[in-house]
Design brief:
five-stranded parallel sheet, 122 residues, 34% helix, 4 helices, single chain, Hypothetical Protein Ychn, Chain: A
Length: 122
Amino acid sequence: MSEKFCVSLTCARDNADKATVAFVVAGAAAASEKETLVFLSTEGVRLAEKGYADGIHEEGFAPLKQLLESYVEAGGKIFVCSPCFKKRGLDETKLIAGATIVGGAKLVEFLTVDGGSPCITY
């Protein structure tokens, strides 16, 4: 069984339900002491900018900002797709805690090195 877990997230406010559930699952994996990575791409990269998740709250779940913070506090990592981030003109100086801008090779490395990792996508 892998000791790593990856959640790939391609949406943000455009589908707050998926974004929220992605961080619920990622938080559960991190709390289970799995080395956990959330990979943000396409519209999902917007969640890496401070303040963006404020006010996103799907009924029946904790607010997305709280889920993000809890995930990072549990040791979860956030990789942000560099080309996707740049395409949207976002500010690298305004990243949330735990977020790192990376190229696709870093995701491939996480998924394949040291026994690999399962990955789910929202």
